[in-house]
Inverse folding.
């Protein structure tokens, strides 16, 4: 296997530099058949106007490792935020990664940070006890949640995208208690929640009858090649993905990657994550060495080692079994 050339990380690289081109390719949003199908389903449930909390349908976008779930979340967030630059204070959508270890307090702080709320840990709320007395809550889960509800209304937020929601499995509270809390939070926030994670996220949602009714599972799967009669055949769609990625390559020549779909499938298992990583590594090599295209020799040189690919395939197949 070849060794990628180590380049220092540059947050804002200068235009025309190798780092600039690599960053542009890494951040490129690629529409391809599997993602387009997920978009269409999510579109169906998007709130067109303010609804009562119990009438909002939420989404669980789930799939095995490497199927591009995080990229879908990023693309959705960018789309919702487009055109809001001229509307100060308005934040139509927030997106953040679920904390680990998972606590609702840390979850709420991350949501507040995405609403650009300064010093969210200073949240204060007045809470009435059952005996009629009032308590001042400062920097508590309850106080933070109350501030979040207020800020969501002020920012006119309608969508909350949460990546890696399976981190809820790493929580001190019981899973059942956390799912009950999720249902209550969805009611309080009055926004559409798009939860992103591995197939076990769907299992979490299915633990509560209310979340089963109000959350719609949308799978994001890998591209598959038939091994026996009746198996799904996604080879044509995988070729479309390869063509879409090639169009994003900042190289002067045409790599004709569509002619090497068989090799690319073998070394990615039909997963966009490993595929894009492989092409990014080849791109880095081509840019540094002054090559005009990505060649089959580069693909073979920088592909994932066989033992790692077998381990990845085993993990993905196990996760796919949870989708059944």
């Amino acid at each position: 296997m070849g060794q990628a050339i180590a380049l220092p990380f540059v947050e804002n690289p200068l235009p025309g530099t190798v780092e600039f081109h690599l960053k542009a390719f890494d951040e490129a949003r690629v529409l391809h058949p599997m993602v387009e199908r997920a978009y269409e389903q999510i579109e169906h449930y998007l709130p067109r106007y303010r609804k009562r909390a119990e009438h909002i349908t939420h989404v669980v976008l789930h799939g095995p490792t490497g199927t591009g779930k995080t990229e879908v979340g990023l693309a959705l967030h960018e789309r919702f935020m487009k055109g809001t630059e001229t509307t100060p204070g308005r934040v139509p959508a927030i997106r953040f990664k679920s904390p680990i270890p998972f606590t609702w307090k840390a979850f709420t702080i991350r949501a507040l940070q995405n609403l650009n709320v300064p010093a969210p840990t200073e949240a204060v709320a007045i809470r009435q006890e059952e005996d009629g007395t009032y308590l001042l809550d400062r920097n508590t889960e309850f106080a933070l949640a109350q501030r979040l509800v207020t800020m969501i209304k002020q920012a006119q937020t309608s969508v909350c995208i949460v990546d890696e929601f399976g981190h809820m499995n790493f929580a001190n509270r019981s899973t059942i208690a956390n799912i009950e809390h999720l249902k209550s939070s969805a009611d309080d926030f009055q926004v559409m929640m798009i939860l992103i994670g591995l197939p076990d996220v769907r299992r979490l949602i299915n633990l509560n009858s209310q979340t089963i009714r109000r959350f719609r599972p949308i799978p994001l799967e890998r591209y598959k090649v038939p091994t026996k009669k009746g198996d799904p055949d996604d080879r044509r769609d995988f070729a479309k993905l390869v063509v879409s990625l090639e169009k994003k390559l900042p190289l002067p020549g045409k790599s004709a990657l569509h002619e090497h779909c068989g090799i690319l499938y073998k070394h990615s298992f039909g997963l966009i994550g490993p595929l894009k990583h492989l092409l990014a590594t080849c791109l880095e090599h081509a840019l540094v060495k002054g090559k005009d295209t990505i060649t089959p020799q580069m693909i073979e040189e920088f592909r994932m080692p066989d033992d790692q690919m077998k381990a990845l395939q085993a993990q993905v197949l196990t996760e796919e079994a949870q989708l059944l």
